[in-house]
Amino acid sequence: MSQASPRVLALCGGVGGAKLVLGLSHIVAGEDLMVVVNTGDDFDHLGLRVCPDIDTVSYTLAGVVNPETGWGRAGETGEFMAALASLGGEDWFFLGDRDLALHVERTRRLRDGETLSDITADFACKLGVTVNIVPMSDDPVATKVATKEGELAFQHYFVRERCQPAVTGFRFQGIDRASPHSRIVEALQNPALEAVVICPSNPFVSIDPILALPGLREALTRCTAPVVAISPIVGGAAVKGPTAKMMAELNVAVTPAAVVTHYAGLLEGFVLDERDAACKRTIERLVPHVSIGDTLMVNLDRKIALAEQVLALAGRCVAA
Ligand code: FO1
Is pLDDT at 68 greater than 80 in this prediction? Predict the structure, then answer.
């Protein structure tokens, strides 16, 4: 794992963000690409430390992710879960047999005093991934979802309750005591950095925990590289997951413009899906550089094409 300063830094959540990161990894050398991953979804479950977004990004880049779910491993078996269920254990959160090995080993190494970032880098190396996968922080942060039925831990809301309770807000427990990983701050201070990419991940629960880290937003606004985002909203719906449902419940318009407004003060560029071309003018009033493209990333070629478009947009921001 190279410690050189990256050319491209991506802020990323789980499944949707990992797709773009895979595209980026095909056009940017591993050592030149840093992926800053949300850890607000992480939780202790069955005595194990589970880090879903880190694992989704790692498995995706390693080519071993389950293509149907976008998380977990391809060709996975569920012997452990079946045995656990037969004992009356908690089986609402599926841990595949091979995936389980990673949680067991990560938990042991954390208990022995290693940092999450060192363990993540080592696992990535063992999976054959050269991209720098950096947890947003080595300090624990836990996303809590305020709902009309009370506050829920993130995975209880997301998986156990299937995102059904109406959300009223979010809280990132531990954020005030958490520091962004030093490699992220160093990368943002480096004048050689060419682009910061906010992946089309959920703005509220995937990107906001990263932006809420003390000093991170300031580091982003001071950084000389342009910050560009890709709309997670296409045609009034989220490409994946509960983003649109959350926006509606928070009384925010389910539009790309609302996403740009959410990232106010950060963006120099925004990629809008071609299905939303009609709102280009509106977006241009909010952000200096707008590009229209196919953001659905249905296959590897489209992931690479979107990654190329994002970096071209960043280049236009610099040239202007
Ligand atoms: N998502 C589900 O919808 N159901 C699950 O049982 C589930 C298990 C799981 C296990 C490991 C892992 O890395 C991810 C897992 N996910 C599951 C996905 C995860 O809840 C979400 O992708 C993220 O936390 C949201 O980005």
Answer: yes
Radius of gyration of the chain (CA): 19
35-59 residue pLDDT tens = 999 999 999 999 999 999 999 999 9
What is the Cα–Cα distance from 108 to 88, expressed in whole angstroms?
25
| pLDDT tens digits for range 172-187 | 999 999 999 999 999 9
Cβ atoms of 9 and 188 within 8 Å: the answer is: yes
User: What is the C-alpha to C-alpha distance for residues 12 and 37, in angstroms, rounded to an integer?
Assistant: 5
Nearest CA to ligand 1 atom 21: 52
Q: Convert 281-291 to b/e letters by CB count within 10 Å (16 or more is b).
A: eebeebbebbb
- Report helix, strand or coil for 63: coil
Nearest by Cα to 265 from 310, 222, 201: 222
Task: Give the residue, out of 93, 97, 206, with the most ligand 1 atoms within 8 A of its beta carbon, to mutate for a pocket test.
Answer: 93
As a whole number, the mean pLDDT across the chain is: 96
Dihedral Cα 64, 70, 71, 77, nearest 10 deg: -60
In order, the DSSP letters of 177-239 are G----HHHHHHHH-TT--EEEE-SS-IIIIIHHHHTSTTHHHHHHH-SSPEEEE-SEETTEES
The atom number, within ligand 1, closest to the CA of 202 reads 26
Q: Please give the single-letter amino acid code of residue 106.
A: R
